[in-house]
Amino acid sequence: MSDLSYEIDSDGIAVITWDLEDRSMNVLNSRSMGEYRDILNKLIPDENVKGIILRSAKDAFIAGADLTSADVFGFDQVQEDKVKAAEKIYNGNMEMQLLFRSMENSGKPFVAAINGHALGGGFEICLACHYRVAIDNDKIQIGQPEAKVGLIPGAGGTQRVPRLAGVNQDIMGFLMAGTPFTPKKALSSGLIHEVTDAENLIAAAKKYINDGGKAVQPWDEKGYKFPGGLPYTPKGAMIWAASSSTLRKMSYNNYPAQSAILSAIYEGVQVPIDAALRIEARYFTKVVMDPVSMNMVRSLFVNMQALNKGARRPKEFQKYDVKKIGILGAGLMGAGIAFVTAKAGIEVILIDTDQEAAEKGKEYSTKILDKQLSKKRTTEEKKEKLLSLITPTTDYSLLQGADLIVEAVFENRDIKADVTAKAEAQIAETAVFGSNTSTLPITGLAQNSKRPNNFIGIHYFSPVERMPLVEIIMGKETSQETLAKTMDYVQKIKKTPIVVNDSRGFYTSRVFGTYTGEGVAMLAEGVKPALIENAGKMTGMPMAPLALSDAVALDLAWKVTTQTKKDLEAEGKEYPVTPMHTLLEEMVEKQGRYGKKNNKGFYEYPENGKKYLWPELSNLCKESDAQPEAEELKKRFLYIQALETAKCYEENVLTDVRDADIGAILGWGMAPWTGGPLSFIDMVGIKEFVAEADNLAQKYGERFTPCKLLRDMAAKNERFHSSGKSGQAA
């Protein structure tokens, strides 16, 4: 098997073509890099070769390092022998650094012909070329996304990028946030030299060589000056002070990669390039060895990729091609589902109780597309094509021929039962019926169906067009074939699926509620509202808990709470009335504060101004004289989510650790640096976690008491991310 090939033309220009045979995208791994090294060892000494071009035979250039391969940086050894792992990671990194330096110092011009995405190591190999030309296409991404998965650029990115473009807001976003550039943006930033059309890409690359293009990098030339000023210059000092402030605001010191990137740049730009690359290699090794990095790589790259490729799909069933679906309910959720479904080229029948409501649901897609049109992200033709796939109606007979139904009406069992019966009267026996309920058990809703084996939960997140996760819920009678069909649909609309078993609140809604609930509980205890909110953000959550409660709607939380109380009492079970329950009742029933929806919740929402915490909260919930440390509150937020997730695992709501971690990060935004709740427990250490949870339980209540599963695991010193917990977990 050969991944790379080369040809030498009559002018003496060698064109190296990357085309990994077994991959949809080119990646840097031990095999491909070994082949590349062997080719360079032939071409560089060859006197008949006057220049070298790197190109790709695939739609993308190179997507970066293959993080799914444990041998790339030595991830497989980190848990076993940290010293040997660190040596392997550092030495492996320096091998690549030296290889790229051999390109720069070869005396022959190297040109990167960038035809598609050049990301991570795929762009770093371009940076080691003396000239970079890219196709002028705004869909192409050029970037260093390593920080998004907890790593730092490890093949010269932290050193070559600032040496080309200096240090500014855009470049710091490029490196520390992983924000990609379009080719035009990369050109204006100084990271590439030229843009052209696809037909002239190789010709432009050859022209540089034939015209006698330099075979030396700017930083290797005598008299090179760092753009914008070094850190010890007055101008440079101002830039670096701002960067440090941005870092603190961005990461709250939760993300070692961002700090390492900034340090590597700061130290590296003050020394010659070869010393700088060794600095980068040391920081890269340090970050890879950090458990935060390990968690993020495993969850946000390896396991995410596995789920997106259908790791949880039953393999024994043929691919199910969903061509037509019916959506029952044209409200916010139904309208969003209609948009993402039509975007995937699927015909949509959007049903509501009256035509006006149905039309309003379709209008949601029109507004999204008009906004995209104004930003030149779509065309009028594409807009009309998508809209033509959505038929707003009140006529259930139009559901005939639908492969799948998605029910998205109000959280009312009677209404859901009514629309289920109407839809099932029109659809084929083989069609899937999915409910978008976020709280009502699927098994109970399936009792209204004539075909409970075809009934499944398909829980989207709002706003549907932006949220990447879909939670698939298996009822007691849901068949594996129905699961396979649903997975095929979710993949087609390009969402990440997780699979859970039926339970009240399922997984995401159930655990998400612990975060907002803990914020409300703190408020009821007398913790200052501002302290609660700041601690939530410092934890790494995307929104502070009280603000998030407002956004979700306090009256909805109260409805769910009261419904849960009724259901438990009907089952003969006791519902514990907590301070949170009492506070919600006060806010909704007595104060009429429903959240952002009526501009009155824990916050006030003035028409022409920024929101602010409701001043009366301090009177409603008397503040304690002694306030807790922020670190204590952060711990409570993280532990309560992890504890409830472990309960879901114990109760078989979750059966795969990947679903737990990815569902938490994508579903409600659990702090990505943790790698997800079960990764967080592993990171703390099972024995330490259980001991600290017991301590929290003594202080704040039974909700922090570890479940039996955790105690059993602590006794055996087990981890969730091991072969014993999921046969397919990374």
What is the topology?
Elements: E1 4-8, E2 13-18, H1 30-43, E3 51-56, H2 82-104, E4 110-114, E5 118-119, H3 121-127, E6 131-135, E7 142-143, H4 157-165, H5 169-177, H6 183-189, E8 194-196, H7 201-210, H8 234-251, H9 256-268, H10 273-289, H11 291-308, E9 324-328, H12 332-343, E10 347-351, H13 355-374, H14 380-388, E11 390-393, E12 404-407, H15 413-424, E13 432-435, H16 442-446, E14 455-459, E15 469-474, H17 480-492, E16 496-501, H18 508-525, H19 529-539, H20 545-552, H21 554-570, H22 579-590, E17 603-604, E18 612-613, H23 617-620, H24 630-650, H25 657-667, H26 677-684, H27 686-700, H28 708-716
Could you characterize the architecture of this molecule?
There is one protein chain. This protein has 28 helices and 18 strands. The protein is α/β, with parallel strands linked by helices. It has three domains: 4-289, 2-enoyl-CoA Hydratase, Chain A, domain 1 (Alpha-Beta Complex); 324-505, NAD(P)-binding Rossmann-like Domain (Rossmann fold, 3-Layer(aba) Sandwich); 509-716, N-(1-d-carboxylethyl)-l-norvaline Dehydrogenase, domain 2, CATH 1.10.1040. The strands form four sheets. Strands 11-10-9-12-13-14-15-16 form an eight-stranded mixed β-sheet, sandwiched between helices. It is globular and about 85 Å long. Residues 70-77 and 723-730 have low confidence and may be disordered.
